[in-house]
Amino acid sequence: MDKSTVNIKGYDIDVYSLNTVIVGTGAAGLNAADSLYNLGQTDIAIVTEGINMGTSRNTGSDKQTYYKLTVSGDTPDSVKEMADTLFSGGSMHGDIALAEASLSAKSFYKLVDIGVPFPHNKYGEYIGYKTDHDPRNRATSAGPLTSKFMTEKLEVQVKNKGIKIFDGYLVIGILTDGDSEGKRSTGLIAVNMDEMNGKNMGFTLFNCTNIIYAAGGPAGMYKTSVYPESQTGASGIAFEAGAKGINLTESQYGIASIKFRWNLSGTYQQVLPRYVSTDKDGNDEKEFLEEYFENPGKMLDAIFLKGYQWPFDPRKVDGFGSSIIDILVFNEIQNKGRRVYLDFMQNLSWGSKDGEIDFSILSGEAYVYLKNSKVLFGKPIDRLAKMNQPAIDLYTGNGIDLYKEYLEIAVCAQHNNGGLMGNSWWESNLRNFFPVGEVNGTFGVYRPGGSALNSTQVGSFRAAQYIKHNYKREPENIDRFIEVSKKQLEDKLDIALDVMQSAGEESNIFEIRNRALERMSRYGAHIRTLQGCIEGIAECAGDINTFTDSVKIGSASELPDVFRTYDILVSQYVYLYAIKEYIEKGGRSRGSYLVRDENGRLPMEGLSEDFRFSLDDGAFSDRAFEVELDNSKGTLDVKVSCNNVRPVPVEDNWFENVWNDYRNDKIVK
Ligand SMILES: Cc1cc2nc3c(=O)[nH]c(=O)nc-3n(C[C@H](O)[C@H](O)[C@H](O)COP(=O)(O)OP(=O)(O)OC[C@H]3O[C@@H](n4cnc5c(N)ncnc54)[C@H](O)[C@@H]3O)c2cc1C
Q: What is the position in ligand 1's atom list of the atom closest to the CA of 27?
């Protein structure tokens, strides 16, 4: 890696030149760096806004799942079968599904080797269990913090190798050569957040042949979110640079606590907590679910089932299914302007006598489960203590005492199946740019639980392999690099300089951001209407077009949040556009969202017309929506196309033939 300094607009700016920059230190970014180094490409560095930031490092769940090929017992499994499972989720490319499956065992055993504590039996079998959308027992877990362990162990590998980490650098722009045919990425603009008050506002350039972009999901778009607060995402600048998005409509949402962000799945629901809502100030408390259910048994069953049917799923709405709970929670919050809580201290009154639940009104499934767990007694908190004490301790450790207080909840964004488009080597349409991990739109409509973590490892390795074989060349000569990048850098500097004119005034950046987040949770989350999208897009465009005029900041240290907010606005614009197109083309409710259909049915009486819906019949499962932003003329044009997905390839795996190609370096192409 070489370092030089250039002067642009009177600012001295450091430029680092190297073969590959990896953006992000989640499970994907760290593995990309480690893999590149192992493969022999050592002219690399990692740039991250914070080594301890991001989803992988800061999230978890009851039993955080890692999906892999079956490697234990007598359950038959194969690469092809696993690929078929992934592909059957709908709208996913088959060659990507095959790569995810092919490299699953390799990726998993690497994690085992570096010390992630996945459990095995005394003969060394890495046993598994069944997760959602999983016909086998392919899931495993290292406990509630699987992804955290992954980042910790991968970080050790990266540090042992002495790979340079630019920690505290926020990437604010992706540089390109501007070539309309075969446009490629040429580097990055970042700000060193320790130097925001310095002479050049922390501006730093990276001149690199390749970028592995492991910036995580676009978490910062939503107000109600169970992504960790330290994860904002950086998809907006990738769209700005010309990277296409795919399946942006497909995200996952579910009920989570919002003061401390945590999925309320599993035992939190199975113990039948009391759902209550209040007005904004905490008054007028009521058990709102009872207004909607036919009888208390059905209400309790729906709550119970939410435990293992955690993500909102429109197929589980009818007949008082578990996903009706998400709709009713959303209805209280968004339509009635109330707040919703889980109370573990008391039982719901409807279905109880003298404060004790009448368990005999439960369905067989719920009753047997609770009976076998020996919890047919007491209050929700007593049942939780008996079934899963760590679930209580987790909240205590985060300052919430479930014995004494209510837990505020919402239906939260949790994962993006879609994202930036990549091919089966994870390279974007923007050449030399490799989105990996959650920022890559690997998946389609449904995916098995835990496959996101498998994907962080597979995609990052595939990108590293491709770069090592095909893109070894040195970065551009510095003069040429500056010639190509100057205007793009000046545009970013201008944003900073424009906004800096307000320095000293009372900041409004979080007010602007907050308004945007509320918009996305209202229009672009699990309940969607065409009209809502159209309004959301118009509001978003307004915010983008007036951005630098309306933002006020106290000092330069707020510039990173200015750039993050801008990124969120651009991401929202593109995502809402994709949702609008899907609905306009006749797309209906599927995955983890409900689309208003005026010819559909209401989930239950008494709900607003916004919830009238019909289920998708698989009409778009063999196609994927691709989206491309063109803002070169400042007009925020978005092109959308709906293309057939590629099937799972059927390869001629005759050993001699593959070996021959392999020896002649014809594989990684
Ligand atoms: C509550 C919850 C539970 C989950 N449970 C599961 C599960 O059980 N199984 C499963 O498979 N998946 C699960 N997921 C999803 C999974 O955790 C994520 O998809 C995965 O961890 C993402 O890893 P990543 O490396 O792609 O991104 P992240 O871990 O989010 O890392 C992104 C990195 O990029 C950095 N970054 C971002 N923007 C910039 C920028 N502009 N400049 C510099 N750096 C930047 C961040 O700081 C961070 O270091 C869960 C997610 C949540 C929220």
A: 25
Looking at residue 179, what is its pLDDT? 75
Rg of the chain, C-alpha, whole Å: 25
Q: Which residues in the chain are classed under CATH 3.90.700?
A: 253-414
pLDDT of 337 over the 90 cut: yes
Predicted local distance difference test score (pLDDT) of residue 326: 97
Ligand 1 center to residue 552 CA distance, Å?
Answer: 30
Q: What share of the chain is helix, strand, coil (3-state, %, to 5)?
A: 40, 20, 40
Identify the residues whose C-beta falls under 6 Å from ligand 1.
23-29, 47-50, 53-56, 59, 61, 64-65, 147, 170-171, 214-216, 226-227, 231, 233-234, 263, 414-415, 437-438, 449-453, 456
Q: Is the pLDDT of residue 605 over 90?
A: no
Query: Taken in order 258, 261, 265, 266, is the CA torsion positive or negative?
Result: negative
Instruction: For residue 556, give the nearest of 499, 509, 489, 492 by alpha carbon.
Output: 499
pLDDT of the residue at 18: 98
CA 235 to chain centre: 11
| Closest C-alpha residue for ligand 1 atom 31 | 26
Q: How far is the CA of 17 from the centre of ligand 1 (A)?
A: 27
| 568 vs 411: CA distance, rounded Å | 20
Rounded distance between C-alpha atoms, residue 475 and residue 220, angstroms: 32
Query: For ligand 1, atom 21, which residue shows the shortest CA distance?
Result: 56
**Which residues of the chain form CATH 1.20.58.100?**
501-617
Residue 215 CA to ligand 1 centre (angstroms)? 8
Residue pair 263/297 in contact by the 8 Å Cβ criterion? no
Specify the CATH number of the domain 253-414.
3.90.700
pLDDT score of 131: 87
- Spell out the CATH class of 501-617: mainly alpha
Distance, CA of 67 to CA of 137 (rounded, Å): 9
- Report how far ligand 1's centroid is from the alpha carbon of 56 (Å): 4
Query: What are 626-651's pLDDT values in tens digits?
Result: 999 998 888 899 999 999 999 999 99
**Which residue of 56, 206, 492, 566 sits with most ligand 1 atoms within 8 Å of its CB, as the best mutation to test the pocket?**
56
First to last CA, the chain: 26
On the question of pLDDT at 78 being above 80, the answer is yes
Predicted local distance difference test score (pLDDT) of residue 130: 86
Helix, strand, or coil (residue 75): coil
Mean pLDDT of 36-64: 96
Residue 419, Cβ density class (10 Å: 0-12 exposed, 13-18 middle, ≥19 buried): buried
320: left (phi > 0), else alpha (psi -120 to 50), else beta? left
Q: State how far the Cα of 395 lies from the Cα of 260, in Å rounded to an integer.
A: 8
What tens digit of pLDDT does each residue of 267-285 get? 999 999 999 999 999 999 9
Neighbours of 180 (CB within 10 A): 7
Q: Which two tokens stand for residue 251?
A: 């995200």
Is 139 within 8 Å of 128 (Cβ atoms)? yes
